[in-house]
Amino acid sequence: MTARSILVVDDDATLVALLKEGLEKTGCRVETALDSAEGLRLAREVRPDMVILDFYLPGGDGGWMYEHLREAPETAHIPVLFSSGLTLHELHGKVHSGPRTFFLKKPVSLAGILTVVDQALGPGRLPIQPLPAAPAAPAGPRRARVHEFDVRVTYADTDKMGIIYYANYFKYFEQGRTELLRSLGVRYRDLEIQRKLFIPAVEASCRYLAPSRYDDLLIVRTWIAELGRASVSFECDIVDEDLNGQVVARGASRHAVVNDLWRTARVPDDLRALLEPYVGKGPGV
């Protein structure tokens, strides 16, 4: 029997190496990619029996790659297993899935993945072997939950060249921080008025990766890189849906937490508990 071919697309190089080793021990042929563009190229070239796909990836997310696979007749039939830190409900909200689409929430085991592979392709010939254990140290940063919201580029956002004026990206970053808090039931205005807490920026930066233009649809992805005793550092990706999900700007800002007397204030325990899931390594970082 011909060995089953699997394409693993994930930006976690350690996980990719472990999955490749484990799957090859069961007799599978494995190709790997660390971003969606390379994954799509390999899928078209190799025509694997199945694709194991992360959602948040550099160069366009897993949903972008999935749609391109389904649009092409030569890859439309390939079963796709989404392996992601997102919940099943969150993934269903982002992916128009069909009967040959499967979901597993990270962290995943080799046995769990092979169960889905067998479900999609039929049982393999070789016995399941345990996934090799990852090195205990050094431990990598955990994946952060990411908040997303959409914004449409207006004429007022663009400059004489017809692209977004560079300073306006900082406006999007601020909206991202505000909307992340709002999604948790916390209004920045209430922090100031009711709790007398303020979060002034002490440092901000932006990397401009590609130009976006009037009427483009942007997705603002925000997470927290670090949550200190009296400080918080946000990071943000701006993704342009009209550029096939390309990351067009990447920003970061560090903020102090102070009271109305401009003295350092500790992040309240209830607010810290709400923010903790959003702390860690972001998509494509």
Q: In a few lines, what is going on in this structure?
A:
The chain is globular, with a radius of gyration of 21 Å. The protein has 2 domains: 5-121, 3-Layer(aba) Sandwich (Rossmann fold); 147-278, Thiol Ester Dehydrase, Chain A (Roll).
List keywords for this structure.
alpha/beta; 2 domains; single chain; 26% strand; Rossmann fold; 285 residues; Thiol Ester Dehydrase, Chain A; five-stranded parallel β-sheet
How would you describe the overall organization of this protein?
This protein is α/β, with parallel strands linked by helices. The protein has two domains: 5-121, Response regulator (Rossmann fold, 3-Layer(aba) Sandwich), CATH 3.40.50; 147-278, Thiol Ester Dehydrase, Chain A (Roll). The chain is 29% helix and 26% strand. The chain has helices spanning 13-25, 36-46, 62-71, 88-94, 110-121, 168-183, 188-194, 269-275, and strands at 5-9, 29-33, 50-53, 80-84, 101-105, 147-152, 197-198, 201-208, 217-227, 231-240, 246-256, 258-259. A five-stranded parallel sheet has the order 2-1-3-4-5, with helices on both faces. A five-stranded antiparallel sheet has the order 6-9-10-11-8, with helices on one face. A hairpin with a 3-residue loop joins strand 9 (217-227) and strand 10. Helix 2 (36-46) packs parallel to helix 3. The longest helix is centred in the middle third of the chain and has 16 residues, at 168-183. The two termini are 40 Å apart. Mean pLDDT is 86; it is low at 125-138.
